[in-house]
UniProtKB/TrEMBL annotation:
InterPro entries: CHAT_dom, TPR-like_helical_dom_sf, TPR_rpt. TPR repeats lie at residues 71-104. It comes from Undibacterium nitidum. This is CHAT domain-containing protein. Residues 409-747 form the CHAT domain. It comes from the Bacteria. Keywords: TPR repeat. SMART domains: TPR.
Length: 749
């Protein structure tokens, strides 16, 4: 489905290893089978596919032909247990490895070094230093070989983690480099030089760092190691920036970016123990490049400056793609959409209609940069506010809106920072639609609720959100000519959940029951009946063990009934009935909204709009994002499998509406779930809410949106804007909590 774009060199190597393993299985040669399984498991580990790696590494253990082969497989499996967060199982496997080869010095060293990474500070630094010192003595007794050099490097990593100093470790690193040179292990030599260069950067010994990097680059010209080139060049770029050598910083960042793009599909989305490769390695390079490019922008002539700003925009677009890939846990999910984007071309102006502007806010530690692109060109505005202060204000504003608290001061302050610098341009060019590509915490912000002291932003502009113009095809080059399209709508809702309550994850069930301290009916009787799922606690650690193991069928039935009460959505039936009165639609409610029937209806290709009125949460990652059908949980990944069909490829959904879903509070990654849902459902755009909204307000707003979009053929952004303006005129709903939560994501037309 994703074509050759996702068949990287790692993927191709994986297929070769699987074929070799299958051949060994057929041949039945035990020794060869274990070796092939080990090789395959290590490759999968390198790709970040730890569950699969575990399967093959266990096979390597089970088919080992001798004790040394078994111990190596056990150490490898133990390392994967660590990646999976199963430390107890890792310790057991390390013990088994030692037991399998009690006389092997290398097994003892390997286990000792790997196990030291698991030790906590509870044992005290001195005790840990002592254990590592004993390991160093054993390493030094080994004959000079590549493994010995690697053990020495691993030793320095562990000692540095404990606070070891350069004078203490420099001789060990130097020894490892000499051995690596002696055995002509060039890749290992570069790894050692990379570590030495990092020490020099940490100590701000910039010239020493640059000299070491030069040595590494000479070696890299002789081997294929792009991942090391990325590390070396990114570090050089950081140091050049500190030395005010911005031209050299740009050059090094561009080299690093070129290598990232060359091996993008080979870089695991997740690193060790769930760490993100995007947040730790990829995004800092792109953000550093954007910073370096902007530093010299004002000194350029207008034509050169414009070209440079387009370059910066392209860098930001790539960052947005990185972040959505990180959220979805799959690089190919976004790549499959890039070829469909007609409006985006690198380093050139977008084909924007007059009256439309694209805003890229870029958060740097010391400032905020605003890139604004319109049909007349691109401009840059710098705002002197630290990232910490901006994020603090955004989080406070978001919390105030969720809780219906005072927001006016924060609203005016954020308008002054984010929109006031653009007002003259927006008004001078008669901008009607403002499309925002938010950065970080700004994804949590309801821009519609920002106020200039007289008006809300939504009173001036129709506001839409884009995850990036490269990601979801916007088709912004021209409005569709000719007669308005008659939109066909599928309305799917769950007011009273069914068997789905028995399929919820145990931790979610536990936390739902914990949050239900008040009587359900008492909460439902409050004036503003909210669709909240208590998202603040849904994915945090459990606070107590409220949910005990059910002892009988009767206990299970009681838990199910209570969950059905908690998850009931009284306003959904009314919402669907009211929409049926104003648009031509097919409805599937409660038992008819099974995951199977939902899939069949959408895959028929009959509908342009799919409206889902059911509980859902957008969490920090795709696997914590879901909606509830009547009978089952539908994860964001299942959107792709449930809704895949030739009919949808020929006629993609125009709009996916999620009227009762919410984003996890305070998590700036959660709103990416709305974009991810649209992407997985092959929808041109989506509409969702940043926080739970009262039943009455949500129902009224949705009726207005459909009247405007389906019946009056307005754009999605304008349809939402007019619905928000209509709602805020009512005394009961004047607070932005009721009207500002909903956002249009993706195609705004």
């Amino acid at each position: 489905m994703f074509s050759s774009q996702c068949q990287s060199s790692y993927w191709l190597r994986l297929q070769d290893l699987k074929t070799t393993y299958q051949n060994a299985t057929s041949a039945g040669v035990k020794r060869e089978l274990s070796g092939r399984a080990l090789e395959l498991g290590l490759h999968l580990q390198q790709m970040g596919r730890y569950q699969e790696a575990h399967i093959y590494l266990q096979a390597a253990v089970d088919t080992a032909d001798n004790s040394l082969q078994r111990s190596r497989a056990l150490v490898a499996r133990a390392n994967v247990e660590v990646e999976l967060g199963r430390r107890d199982l890792a310790q057991q496997a390390y013990d088994e490895a030692l037991g399998a080869s009690p006389d092997s010095a290398e097994t003892a060293i390997s286990v000792g070094l790997n196990r030291s990474a698991l030790l906590t500070m509870d044992a005290g630094k001195q005790g840990m230093f002592g254990q590592l010192q004993l390991l160093l003595q054993r390493i030094e007794q080994l004959p000079d070989a590549e493994n010995k050099a690697r053990y020495l490097v691993q030793y320095t990593v562990q000692v540095k983690r404990l606070g070891g100093s350069l004078p203490q470790l420099a001789p060990v690193l130097a020894q490892s480099l000499i051995i690596a040179q002696k055995v002509d292990a060039k890749y290992l030599q570069v790894e050692i030089l990379d570590q030495q260069a990092q020490w020099m950067e940490d100590l701000q010994r910039h010239q020493d760092m640059l000299q070491i990097s030069d040595q590494a680059i000479l070696l890299l010209q002789q081997i294929d190691a792009p991942e090391l080139m990325i590390s070396i060049e990114a570090r050089r770029a950081r140091v050049y920036t500190r030395l005010q050598r911005h031209d050299l910083a740009i050059k090094s960042y561009q080299i690093a970016v070129r290598y990232i793009e060359a091996i993008r599909q080979d870089i695991p989305v997740s690193y060790s123990q769930g760490r993100s490769s995007v947040r730790e390695m990829i995004d800092p390079v792109y953000l550093g490049l954007a910073d370096a490019l902007l530093t010299g922008a004002d000194a350029l002539d207008p034509a050169a400056k414009t070209k440079l700003l387009f370059q910066v925009r392209d860098v930001v677009e790539q960052i947005k793609q990185n972040q959505l890939e990180d959220y979805l846990g799959n690089r190919c999910s976004t790549l499959s959409n890039l070829s469909a984007t007609t409006a985006y071309a690198p380093a050139t102006a977008l084909k924007l209609n007059k009256g439309t502007a694209i805003l890229y806010p870029i958060i740097f530690p010391d400032r905020l940069e605003l890139l604004l692109e319109t049909s007349e060109g691109i401009a840059r505005h710098r705002v002197d506010i630290t990232s910490n202060k901006l994020i603090q204000d955004v989080n406070a504003m978001s919390s105030a809106l969720r809780a219906q608290q005072s927001f006016q001061t924060l609203s005016r302050r954020l308008y002054k920072v984010l929109l006031a610098p653009l007002d003259s341009t927006l008004q001078g060019q008669s901008i009607e639609t403002l499309v925002i590509v938010p950065d970080g915490a700004l994804r949590l912000l309801a821009f519609a609720a920002l106020n200039d002291g007289k008006q809300f932003a939504v009173e001036k502009y129709a506001i839409a959100i884009s995850p990036g113009l490269r990601i979801i095809a916007q088709q912004v080059d021209a409005q569709i000519k000719g007669a308005p399209i008659a939109r066909k709508v599928l309305l799917a809702g769950v007011s009273e959940p069914g068997k789905v309550v028995d399929r919820l994850p145990e931790d979610l069930v536990d936390q739902l029951l914990q949050t239900d301290d008040l009587n359900v009916e008492e909460k439902r009787g409050k004036a503003a009946r909210s669709r909240a799922l208590q998202s603040r606690q849904l994915f945090g650690p459990s606070q107590s063990n409220v949910l005990t193991e059910p002892n009988s069928t009767e206990d299970m039935r009681a838990i199910s009934n209570k969950l059905k009460q908690i998850l009931r959505l009284d306003g959904v039936s009314t919402e669907i009935q009211s929409l049926e009165k104003i648009i031509s639609a097919k409805s599937i409610l409660n038992v008819d909204f099974s995951s199977r029937n939902f899939s069949q209806q959408v895959r028929s290709g009959e509908f342009d709009i799919v409206h889902v009125a059911s509980h859902g949460i957008f969490g920090s990652t795709a696997d914590k994002t879901f909606i509830l059908a009547h009978d089952d949980v539908i994860t964001i990944d299942q959107f792709q499998s449930l809704l895949s069909a030739d009919q949808l490829n020929k006629r993609p959904l125009d709009l996916l509406v999620l009227s009762a879903c919410e984003t996890a509070e305070g998590d700036d990654r959660a709103p990416l779930g709305i974009s991810g849902a649209a992407l997985k459902a092959k929808a041109r755009s989506a509409m969702g809410s940043l926080w739970p909204v009262s039943d009455i307000a949500a129902s009224q707003l949705m009726q207005s949106v459909y009247q405007n979009y389906v019946n009056r053929h307005m754009s999605k952004a304008q349809s939402l804007r007019l619905a928000q303006l209509e709602l805020m005129q009512q005394k009961s709903f004047v607070h932005p909590n009721f009207w500002a939560a909903f956002i249009v994501v993706g195609n705004w037309q």
